Amino acid sequence: MKITDYLNDGANWQAQGVLAYLKSQDIDINVTRYDNCREQGYIFFKKVSKGGKTYQENVAVYEHRNSDALCIVVFDKVTPNDPLNSDVWENMKDKWDTTEDFKGGEIVECGDEIINIFKDFESNLE
Question: Most buried residue, 1, 21, 71, 115, by CB count within 10 Å?
Fold first, then answer.
């Protein structure tokens, strides 16, 4: 089997790198696929119930189709199931409205930022 076909879920190599990096860290989050035509990646999310209320932090990661930058979009929508790409787009003005962009290949930097986002989310609930 060619390496380009191995473990291919449709996400681009940068998003897969972030997924692999986050898997190597001690972080308790969930993941689902982000599929927006040419932009393929993941949505990392965490739900917390506290005081009878549910809170949810979501972070989409993907390679931008026009710039090849590694992008994240952060939003706090509580979803009944896993968040969808339509939930990501609800929180954007246009395709350039990202929370943060990273240069191509900045996988560890992107992963560290995602870890910090979830740490902040949890600490703000305390």
Answer: 71
C-alpha 56, offset from chain centre: 13
For the chain, the 3-state helix, strand and coil shares in percent, each to the nearest 5, are 30, 30, 40
Report yes or no: 41 and 15 within 8 Å, Cβ to Cβ.
Answer: yes
* Domain boundaries, given as residue ranges, for the chain: 13-124
Low-confidence ranges of the chain (pLDDT < 70): none
CA–CA separation, 88 and 58 (whole Å): 9
Strand extents, DSSP E, the chain = 30-36, 39-50, 53-63, 70-75, 100-102
- β partners of residue 43: 32, 60
